[in-house]
Prior knowledge:
By secondary structure, this protein is an alpha/beta fold.
Amino acid sequence: MNDAIAFLHTAQVHVPTFERLAREIAPELEVRHLVMEELLHEARTLGIDNPMLAARVHEAMREAASEGAAVVACTCSTIGGVAEKTPTGGAFAAQRIDRAMADRAVRAGPRVLIAAALESTLEPTTALLLSAAAQAGVGVRPSALLVAGAWPHFEAGDTARYIGMLASAIRSAATGADVVVLAQASMAPVADELADLGIEVLGSPGPGVAHAVATLRASRSAWAP
Length: 225
């Protein structure tokens, strides 16, 4: 069993973030990255239920695993639900980076505020939370906050303005929420900006990488003589 984890990204900016997290949690593991920005563009254009998109995402996941990675995690929340359904033939574990975050959020609910900068992220994240709640046997009442004006700043590389705009909007909208879910991996730094909010503000990268590492280590143990 190969001691490698691969990440499928739709933005190059995620590579150093996930490289750092993986190194902090499991410095002994090999970490690989595949960036395919076009998959997010296609998802926004075609819709996440499009069969052609699904085929492209599955092909990308298999490409990410092609050098022997035992776990491949998709870091894009828009296509994550499609990615984790990749037929792998048992060759690797296909994961979405935000599932571990969702599992934690539904236990902190029931009033979950889903914050996103892309509309295409809201539907799959809401579906994920409802699925996680059903599996946990709890009820949730998700609500959505779309901060559409922030995304152009991310695309322009102005991370400070992107994070600042998101933090301000979430702070205003979080009244009455039990927990905030930062639906996109790029939003994770917002949690630090809202540390004084009085409720959990959850990002996906940390929990998702920890889950991927745990999956790899469990599979490695299963294969050990």
